[in-house]
């Protein structure tokens, strides 16, 4: 019985430590990273705070991302859900606040842009969040870029590299 209590206590302590260490969360998908970036930046703009002030806590099973921020006199919880076209923020500050902010997604780049100006906040530039690209995505982009060039340009590049190889062979 005592071992079970000790194990349960240590497990709970480890879980609490894991949640308090930044970057210790489990790997997130690209979409989750993009949505968390959107949530954090939109909430920061609405409350006119620094993005770094928002601590990511968890993502609930329904896709709602939960953050904490120090607001007024204590830590407050911010909930955020990203739908196909809106970033929806729910925050219990002095009273319950709800905000729905539209965003534009560029699926080719996996980047989202939000134009949000809040009167009391001096930040007026657009918010831009992009998902991190995998090495395979980068290689595919390079390949598409190469093959989308016109044929004469490809032939010219090939001719120049062939001449350079031939020159190196004769120099040796």
Describe the protein.
With 172 residues, the chain is of the alpha+beta class. The protein has helices at 2-20, 30-47, 135-147, 151-171; strands at residues 55-59, 65-71, 74-82, 86-92, 96-102, 104-106, 111-114, 127-130. It has a five-stranded antiparallel β-sheet with strand order 1-2-3-4-5, covered by helices on one side. It is elongated, with a radius of gyration of 24 Å.
Index terms:
single chain; 172 residues; alpha+beta; five-stranded antiparallel beta sheet; three-stranded antiparallel beta sheet; disordered N terminus
Any chance you could write out the topology, listing elements then pairs?
Elements: H1 2-20, H2 30-47, E1 55-59, E2 65-71, E3 74-82, E4 86-92, E5 96-102, E6 104-106, E7 111-114, E8 127-130, H3 135-147, H4 151-171
* Largest sheet features: 5 strands, antiparallel
> Taking Cα atoms only, what radius of gyration do you get, to the nearest Å?
24 Å
Roughly how many Å apart are the termini? 80 Å
- Tally of strands: 8
Derived structural class: alpha+beta
Give the fraction of residues assigned to helices.
40-55%
Which percent range describes the beta-strand content?
25-35%
**Average residue-wise pLDDT:** 78
Q: Total helix count?
A: 4
Which series of helices and strands comes N to C?
HHEEEEEEEEHH
Low-confidence stretches: 1-28
What strand order characterises the main sheet?
A: 1-2-3-4-5
């Amino acid at each position: 019985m005592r071992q079970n209590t000790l194990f349960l206590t240590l497990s709970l302590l480890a879980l609490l430590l894991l949640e308090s260490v930044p970057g210790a969360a489990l790997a997130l998908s690209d979409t989750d990273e993009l949505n968390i970036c959107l949530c954090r930046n939109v909430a920061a703009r609405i409350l006119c705070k620094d993005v770094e002030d928002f601590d990511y806590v968890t993502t609930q099973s329904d896709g709602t991302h939960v953050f904490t921020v120090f607001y007024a006199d204590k830590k407050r919880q911010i909930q955020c859900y990203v739908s196909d076209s809106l970033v929806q923020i729910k925050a219990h500050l002095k009273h319950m606040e709800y905000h729905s902010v539209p965003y534009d997604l560029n699926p080719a780049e996996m980047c989202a842009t939000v134009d949000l100006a809040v009167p009391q906040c001096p930040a007026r530039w657009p918010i831009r969040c992009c998902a991190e690209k995998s090495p395979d995505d980068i290689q595919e982009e390079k390949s598409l870029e190469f093959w989308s060039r016109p044929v004469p340009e490809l032939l010219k590049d090939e001719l120049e590299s062939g001449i350079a190889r031939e020159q190196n062979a004769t120099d040796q």
